Amino acid sequence: MDKPKSDAHARIFAAIAAIPPGRVASYGAIAARAGLPGRARLVGRALGEVPDGMELPWFRVLRSSGHIAFPAGSKGFREQSKRLKAEGVDVKNGRVPLATFGLDANLDRALWGMPG
């Protein structure tokens, strides 16, 4: 297996690998967890440069709105939607409710009483 391109990429990949099944995170949330706040676009670039042989739950990473980033109806869109649904994630019109399935949904609910 090839190594990540940089330390930043390695931290991004570790943050993505830590997303548990049935949960999702935005590009921005992954950047923040990797110690790279404000670098959501770097997360997107890193996902396009995953080393050969590295298995990552790439499909658990979404736009900040909860939408799948691939164009609707594309092969990538269908694959991401299928994988998320297989984990019990609710995907409607290419969008996942982050308040329910987001990585920090339970923490937000516990701290702030936010619905989920």
UniProtKB/TrEMBL annotation:
One Gene Ontology term from the biological process aspect of the record: methylation
CDD domains reported in the protein's UniProt record: ATase (cd06445)
InterPro entries, alphabetized: ATL_DNA_repair (IPR052520), MethylDNA_cys_MeTrfase_DNA-bd (IPR014048), MethylDNA_cys_MeTrfase_DNAb (IPR036217), WH-like_DNA-bd_sf (IPR036388)
UniProt KW keywords: DNA damage, Methyltransferase, Transferase
UniProt key word rRNA processing: no
GO-annotated molecular function: methyltransferase activity
Signal peptide: none
Domain Methylated-DNA-[protein]-cysteine S-methyltransferase DNA binding: residue ranges: 9-89
Alphabetical list of PANTHER family matching this protein: 6-O-METHYLGUANINE DNA METHYLTRANSFERASE (PTHR42942), ALKYLTRANSFERASE-LIKE PROTEIN 1 (PTHR42942:SF1)
Protein name stated in the entry: Cysteine methyltransferase
Organism placement in taxonomy: Bacteria, Pseudomonadati, Pseudomonadota, Gammaproteobacteria, Lysobacterales
